[in-house]
């Protein structure tokens, strides 16, 4: 990879340790500055991304990164963990308070690790598990043959209705009765609507299955009171701490006290070794931020922005799945504008609009997946969402030259620096 070897300017800011890094290893420091510039001069519409606060970044870059802390607070396999214990207890207490959960495990290194731990706590290899099929928006950990989940368990996929795009509840019920799964997983990488957790609980109870909610995407909205919580319904809730929640990259597991010990053992020592204490400290910071009124306002604005963006994309001619969104996430088929998903993504990338392709249920081609968490963190509102929809559709239709659109994108994002100095 090559990056421009500009000398970092005052505009680049410091982000704490970058100064020391710049003096010792200018080559790598320049890579970090280049990434920072990329993030602040292009439009971040990836539904799983966000801008963490400088406080979260400070915790990530702190000396807790040096600490080995296998085990749990008060029961570690290493010495010198008394400060690490305080950090982890803070993170656990804040997660429990934030989500009203009896137990929280904040050690999973990622969302996938959290799901792995949930399966390890509840299942045996070969057990049948019902989950949203991958072509309909299931995650790799929901039964992909390329992933441990598909290799070790017998996954049965449910889907979304071809007309409405909504989860096919009749199919969930019928498959559950026919296949008697040991666990049912609800949650998705691309479902723009609220999951009906009460419905899934009812079906799980009817067939004697555990209910696992993989709430990686909506958990930040849940924290801010902008989406329903799976905690009262699911036996285990898995989540990421990045995405809308705006913490460091990582995972967590929430459950009732009766499963606490099984979940803890499933994380360590069953699936992980030493906890990453700097990340756990950063999770504590993010949970603290998420408990504030400012975060609730942000979470509601994320949804308001997504609704406006979805409506304007539809008005521009894209086929928006389910006709809109309840969350931060939108999926859409750009084909009505004369371009398939993959071509659309690269054309938009040339214009500085960064987003993902995704599977479109009941379609051959891939669509576009976009989200409003990062742009909302930057301070953009509904006016900017209308401008984004116009720019995006113009590029896809070929009305706007991507290079010219790139200047419009730069002008827009420059008004909303993610890390103002
Ligand atoms: C529903 C769901 N589960 C699990 C994950 C995995 O998270 P990670 O990439 O941190 O392993 C994701 C990530 O996008 C997700 O959306």
Structure description:
It catalyses: (6R)-5,10-methylene-5,6,7,8-tetrahydrofolate + glycine + H2O = (6S)-5,6,7,8-tetrahydrofolate + L-serine. Belongs to the SHMT family. Its cofactor is pyridoxal 5'-phosphate. It is found in: Cytoplasm. One of its GO terms (molecular function) is glycine hydroxymethyltransferase activity. The protein has helices at 18-24, 26-41, 54-60, 82-99, 111-122, 148-152, 169-179, 197-207, 219-223, 260-271, 277-290, 293-315, 341-350, 373-377, 382-397, 402-414; strands at residues 43-44, 71-72, 75-76, 103-105, 128-132, 154-158, 183-186, 210-214, 236-240, 251-255, 319-320, 329-333, 353-354, 356-359, 366-371. It has two domains: 59-290, Aspartate Aminotransferase, domain 2; 293-414, Aspartate Aminotransferase, domain 1 (Alpha-Beta Complex), CATH 3.90.1150.10. α1 (18-24) crosses α2 (26-41), α3 runs antiparallel to α11 and α15 runs antiparallel to α16 (402-414). It is globular, with a radius of gyration of 22 Å. The chain contains 16 helices and 15 strands. The protein is 44% helix and 14% strand. By secondary structure, the chain is α/β, with parallel strands linked by helices. Bound molecules: pyridoxal-5'-phosphate. Pyridoxal-5'-phosphate binds at residues 48, 110-112, 115, 139, 141, 187-189, 214, 216-217, 240, 251.
């Amino acid at each position: 990879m090559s990056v421009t070897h500009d000398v970092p300017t005052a505009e680049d800011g410091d982000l704490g340790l970058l100064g020391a890094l710049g003096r010792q290893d200018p080559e790598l420091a320049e890579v970090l500055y280049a990434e920072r510039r990329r993030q602040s001069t292009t439009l971040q519409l990836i539904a799983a991304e966000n801008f963490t606060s400088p406080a979260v970044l400070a915790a990530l870059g702190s000396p807790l990164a040096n600490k080995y802390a296998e085990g749990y607070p008060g029961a570690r396999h290493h010495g010198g963990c008394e400060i690490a214990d305080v950090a982890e207890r803070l993170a656990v207490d804040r997660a429990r308070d934030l989500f009203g959960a009896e137990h929280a495990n904040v050690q999973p290194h990622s969302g996938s690790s959290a799901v792995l731990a949930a399966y390890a706590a509840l299942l045996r290899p070969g057990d049948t598990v019902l989950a949203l099929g991958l072509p309909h928006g299931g995650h790799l950990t929901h039964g992909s043959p390329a992933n441990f989940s598909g290799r070790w368990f017998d996954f049965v996929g449910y889907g979304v209705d071809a007309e409405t795009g909504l989860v096919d509840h009749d199919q969930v019920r019928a498959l559950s009765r026919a296949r008697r799964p040991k666990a049912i997983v609800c949650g998705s990488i691309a479902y723009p609507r609220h999951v009906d957790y009460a419905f899934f609980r009812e079906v799980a109870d009817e067939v004697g299955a555990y209910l696992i909610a993989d709430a990686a995407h909506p958990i930040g909205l849940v924290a801010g009171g902008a989406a329903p919580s799976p905690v009262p319904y699911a036996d285990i809730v898995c989540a990421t701490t990045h995405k809308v929640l705006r913490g460091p990259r990582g995972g967590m597991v929430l459950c009732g006290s009766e499963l606490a010990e099984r979940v803890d053992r499933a994380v360590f020592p069953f699936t992980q070794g030493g906890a990453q204490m700097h990340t756990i400290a950063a999770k504590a910071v993010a949970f603290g931020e998420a408990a504030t009124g400012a975060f609730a306002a942000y979470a509601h604005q994320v949804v308001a922005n997504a609704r406006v963006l979805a409506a304007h994309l539809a008005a521009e001619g894209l086929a928006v799945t389910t006709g809109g969104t309840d969350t931060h996430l939108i999926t859409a088929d750009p084909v009505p504008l004369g371009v398939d998903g993959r071509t659309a993504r690269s054309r938009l990338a040339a214009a500085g609009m960064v987003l993902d392709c995704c599977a479109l249920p009941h379609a051959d081609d891939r669509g576009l997946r976009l989200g409003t968490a990062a742009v909302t963190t930057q301070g953009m509102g509904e006016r900017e969402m209308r401008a984004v929809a116009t720019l995006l559709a113009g590029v896809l239709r070929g009305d706007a030259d991507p290079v010219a659109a790139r200047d419009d994108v730069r002008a827009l994002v420059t008004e909303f620096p993610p890390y103002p100095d």
